[in-house]
Amino acid sequence: MTDQNSSITAETVASHGLSPEEYDTIKKALGRTPNLVELGIFSAMWSEHCSYKSSRRHLKGLPTTGPQVICGPGENAGVVDIGDGQAAIFKMESHNHPSYIEPYQGAATGVGGILRDVFTMGARPVANLNALRFGSPDHAKTAHLVSGVVAGIGGYGNCVGVPTVGGEVNFHPAYDGNILVNAMTVGVAETNKIFYSAASGAGNSIVYVGSKTGRDGIHGATMASAEFAKDAEEKRPTVQVGDPFSEKLLIEACLELMESDAIVAIQDMGAAGLTSSAVEMASKGEVGIELNMDAVPCREEAMTPYEMMLSESQERMLMVLKPGREAEAEAVFKKWELDFAIIGRVTDTKHMVLTWKGETVCDIPLAPLADNAPSYDRPWIPTAAAKPLAPVAAIGSLTENLVTLVGSPDLASRRWIWEQYDHMVGADTVQRPGGDAALVRVHGTKKGLAMSTDVTPRYCLADPVEGGKQAVAECYRNITAVGALPLASTDCLNFGNPERPEIMGQIVGAIKGIGEACLALNMPIVSGNVSLYNETRRDDGSSLAILPTPTIGGVGLIEDWEDSATIAFNQAGEEIYLIGNSGEGHLGQSLWLREIAGREEGPVPPVDLEQEKNTGDFVRTMIQGKMVGAVHDISDGGLAVALTEMALAGNLGVTVEAHNKDIPLHAYYFGEDQGRYLVATSNAVALVSAAEKANVSIFRLGVTGGSDIVLDGQTVSLDRLRTAHEAFFPELMK
C-alpha cells in the first residue's frame, strides 16, 4: 500500500482536528499507522459535523416516531405521511462557518446542500426556508454579511426554481464573530417511491453523477467543527462554490431515473463529500465499498485521492445501481449534460478500499468510521436559574414604546429580505412571507403544507430547558395559526464549544426541553443537524460563544388550503379576542426589557405544554369552522406588537382595552407570556360559547376599524407605525 507521501506527525494529526487519543484509537482500529488519505478520511468522519460525537448520546432521547412518521432520523431527510399516497420529506441543516467566511457562496451552497438531501429521497422540492442570526447591526461586518447571505440564498433558490417562502432573522452581539445560516427544504414524494441510502448487492456498480470534483471545500466538515480564530478569513478555500443551474439539471435527472427501478441506493455528496457518501452508504447497508480513484471525474489537474475524497464540490451524487442498468442510467445523465462515471463496486468486505494508479491507497474497516466513531460523555453543568425580575416601572407611553419596538432589529419588517427571494415560483405558494407560517399547496390537490422555523435564543441562554420547549411550542403555534395540523419537526442545534461544561449544559438542557415539547405536541423530530464550536477566539485568548440557538423547523398539513387563516385584519367591526391564558405580564427576557429598559435579565416565560396543545386544537377547529377571520400567535414583543402586525397586514386599525387591570399596562401589552393567540371574529357569541365548552380561556379586547392603534386610550397612527416598521433594513443596507 502506498503511503501517499505521508509522514504523519503530531502537527499533521492536530491540523486534521484529531486529538492524540483519537489518533491512538485510529492506529488500534487499523492495526498500523494510517497514511495521509486514511487520516483525512478519519478526520472528516470523526468531525463533530459528521459524527455528532458530543451530542449523539443525548439526541437518542428525542421522540422520533409516530403514526405519521415513515422515516425518522438517520437518512438524508425525514419523511411523514400526508395522505393519498403522498409524503412530505424535509430537513434543516447549518452552513454557519462557510457563510461567515464567504457569505454569498456559504449561504448559496447551504441551500444547494439541503435541496440535495431532500431530492435524494425521491421528493420534488417545493419550498425553502431559512433561519438567520447576525451580530449587532452596528458591527462593521454585519451589513456586508446580511447582504451576502441574503443574495446567496436568493441567487441559488431563485435560479434552481424552488420558492423561498419563510424564515426568521435576528441580531445580537453574540453572533458578531459567528453568524448562523440554517437552511430548510420541504419536498413532496409518492410514498411508494421513496429512496434510501443503504448500499447492497456485492458486485453492484457504484456510480458518480453530477458535476466534476474540484479542490473547493476540502476540509469543510473539519473547519465547521472548530472555533474561529483570527485567521478565519484565510479559510476561504474551504468554502464550496455552488452552481444552481447544475443543481436544477441534477434534480431533474435524478427524479427521471427514479421513475425507473434502476436505483438500489442513493446519497448526496454533502459535508465530507465522497468520503461521507461512500461511508454512509456502505455502513448503513453493512457491506464494503471499493472505489477506483482514477475514474472520479475531476475538473482540476493532478488531483490526489486525498483531495478527491475530501473535496466538497457541489452538485454531486453517489448511487448504487442494479446489475445491467448502467447504460440506462448513463443515458439519462448524459441527456441532462451531467457527468456519469462508474467509479467502483459494492463488496462484502465491510471495508472501504481505494485504488489509484494501480495501487491501494486506503483500506479502512467501516465500523470505526461510522457506527463505532467516538461518542463522548462530555462533562456538563446545568444553567443556573435566573434571578427573579423585580417589578419594572413603565418607561414612556405605551404608544412610544410600540413605535420603538416595531422598528427594532428583531421586530422590523423583513420585506427587504423576502422581496429578494422568488417566493411564488411553481405557482403553489398560497401564503407569502410575512405571516405566521408559510403555506404551499400540494400540487394538483387541495392540500396545503404549512411550515415555519422558530427559536428564541435569549430564552435558551437564560433557561435552555424552557427555551427548548418554547422553540417547539412557537413553531406549533405558527403552523396552527394558519389552520394546519403540525405533523413533525426537524432541528438545527447551534451551540458553542461542547468541551466547555457550561456550553454542554446548554446543549443537554435544550435537547431535554425540545424532547418534552415534541412529545406533548405530537411533533416528533424526524431529521436534523448539530452545529457546534460556534465560537470566536478573542485576542486575549477568551472565546465569544453564540447564544444557544436550537432552531426548530416544523411542517403541518391542512386538508383544504382555502380554509386557512392569515394574520391580516380584513373587516372593520370585527371583535378581537385573546385565546389561551390571561397572561401575567411576563417581562423577563422580553424584547421590551431589552429595547426599552436596556436590560437582558430575568427568568423566561414558562411554557405549559398541556395548555399549548388544548389551545392549539381549539384554534385550529375554529379556523376550519370559519368561526374566526384573522389569527396570530403572540410571541416577541407581546400582545401590542401582535395586534400591530395584524393591523399593518390588513391596513386596518384596532381599538382595545386591557381585560386585566391588575397588571401594569406596559407589562400587559408587552409581556411575552406563552400559549396565546389573537383572533378577529364576526361571530363572537358562538366563538365564546365554543371556548367555554372546550374549557379554553377567552377574553374580549376590542374591535377593528379606523386607521390607528388605540391601546387603553393611547393612540398612534398606522402610518407612523408602518414608517418605523419598514425603516430598519433599508437604513442598515443603504
UniProtKB/TrEMBL annotation:
<keyword id="KW-0479">Metal-binding</keyword>
<dbReference type="InterPro" id="IPR010918">
    <property type="entry name" value="PurM-like_C_dom"/>
</dbReference>
<dbReference type="InterPro" id="IPR010074">
    <property type="entry name" value="PRibForGlyAmidine_synth_PurL"/>
</dbReference>
<feature type="domain" description="PurM-like N-terminal">
    <location>
        <begin position="434"/>
        <end position="557"/>
    </location>
</feature>
<feature type="binding site">
    <location>
        <position position="91"/>
    </location>
    <ligand>
        <name>ATP</name>
    </ligand>
</feature>
<dbReference type="Pfam" id="PF02769">
    <property type="entry name" value="AIRS_C"/>
</dbReference>
<feature type="binding site">
    <location>
        <position position="531"/>
    </location>
    <ligand>
        <name>substrate</name>
    </ligand>
</feature>
<dbReference type="InterPro" id="IPR016188">
    <property type="entry name" value="PurM-like_N"/>
</dbReference>
<keyword id="KW-0963">Cytoplasm</keyword>
<dbReference type="Pfam" id="PF18072">
    <property type="entry name" value="FGAR-AT_linker"/>
</dbReference>
<feature type="domain" description="PurM-like C-terminal">
    <location>
        <begin position="571"/>
        <end position="707"/>
    </location>
</feature>
<protein>
    <recommendedName>
        <fullName>Phosphoribosylformylglycinamidine synthase subunit PurL</fullName>
        <ecNumber>6.3.5.3</ecNumber>
    </recommendedName>
</protein>
<comment type="subunit">
    <text>Monomer. Part of the FGAM synthase complex composed of 1 PurL, 1 PurQ and 2 PurS subunits.</text>
</comment>
<dbReference type="GO" id="GO:0006189">
    <property type="term" value="P:'de novo' IMP biosynthetic process"/>
</dbReference>
<keyword id="KW-0436">Ligase</keyword>
<feature type="active site">
    <location>
        <position position="49"/>
    </location>
</feature>
<feature type="binding site">
    <location>
        <position position="529"/>
    </location>
    <ligand>
        <name>Mg(2+) 1</name>
    </ligand>
</feature>
<dbReference type="GO" id="GO:0005524">
    <property type="term" value="F:ATP binding"/>
</dbReference>
<feature type="binding site">
    <location>
        <position position="240"/>
    </location>
    <ligand>
        <name>substrate</name>
    </ligand>
</feature>
<feature type="domain" description="PurM-like N-terminal">
    <location>
        <begin position="74"/>
        <end position="189"/>
    </location>
</feature>
<keyword id="KW-0460">Magnesium</keyword>
<comment type="function">
    <text>Part of the phosphoribosylformylglycinamidine synthase complex involved in the purines biosynthetic pathway. Catalyzes the ATP-dependent conversion of formylglycinamide ribonucleotide (FGAR) and glutamine to yield formylglycinamidine ribonucleotide (FGAM) and glutamate. The FGAM synthase complex is composed of three subunits. PurQ produces an ammonia molecule by converting glutamine to glutamate. PurL transfers the ammonia molecule to FGAR to form FGAM in an ATP-dependent manner.</text>
</comment>
<feature type="binding site">
    <location>
        <position position="52"/>
    </location>
    <ligand>
        <name>ATP</name>
    </ligand>
</feature>
<feature type="binding site">
    <location>
        <position position="491"/>
    </location>
    <ligand>
        <name>ATP</name>
    </ligand>
</feature>
<dbReference type="GO" id="GO:0004642">
    <property type="term" value="F:phosphoribosylformylglycinamidine synthase activity"/>
</dbReference>
<feature type="domain" description="Phosphoribosylformylglycinamidine synthase linker">
    <location>
        <begin position="14"/>
        <end position="53"/>
    </location>
</feature>
<feature type="binding site">
    <location>
        <position position="116"/>
    </location>
    <ligand>
        <name>substrate</name>
    </ligand>
</feature>
<feature type="binding site">
    <location>
        <begin position="94"/>
        <end position="97"/>
    </location>
    <ligand>
        <name>substrate</name>
    </ligand>
</feature>
<feature type="binding site">
    <location>
        <position position="93"/>
    </location>
    <ligand>
        <name>Mg(2+) 1</name>
    </ligand>
</feature>
<keyword id="KW-0658">Purine biosynthesis</keyword>
<dbReference type="GO" id="GO:0000287">
    <property type="term" value="F:magnesium ion binding"/>
</dbReference>
<feature type="binding site">
    <location>
        <begin position="312"/>
        <end position="314"/>
    </location>
    <ligand>
        <name>substrate</name>
    </ligand>
</feature>
<dbReference type="Pfam" id="PF00586">
    <property type="entry name" value="AIRS"/>
</dbReference>
<comment type="pathway">
    <text>Purine metabolism; IMP biosynthesis via de novo pathway; 5-amino-1-(5-phospho-D-ribosyl)imidazole from N(2)-formyl-N(1)-(5-phospho-D-ribosyl)glycinamide: step 1/2.</text>
</comment>
<keyword id="KW-0067">ATP-binding</keyword>
<feature type="binding site">
    <location>
        <position position="268"/>
    </location>
    <ligand>
        <name>Mg(2+) 2</name>
    </ligand>
</feature>
<dbReference type="InterPro" id="IPR041609">
    <property type="entry name" value="PurL_linker"/>
</dbReference>
<dbReference type="GO" id="GO:0005737">
    <property type="term" value="C:cytoplasm"/>
</dbReference>
<dbReference type="InterPro" id="IPR036676">
    <property type="entry name" value="PurM-like_C_sf"/>
</dbReference>
<feature type="binding site">
    <location>
        <position position="528"/>
    </location>
    <ligand>
        <name>ATP</name>
    </ligand>
</feature>
<comment type="similarity">
    <text>Belongs to the FGAMS family.</text>
</comment>
<feature type="binding site">
    <location>
        <position position="117"/>
    </location>
    <ligand>
        <name>Mg(2+) 2</name>
    </ligand>
</feature>
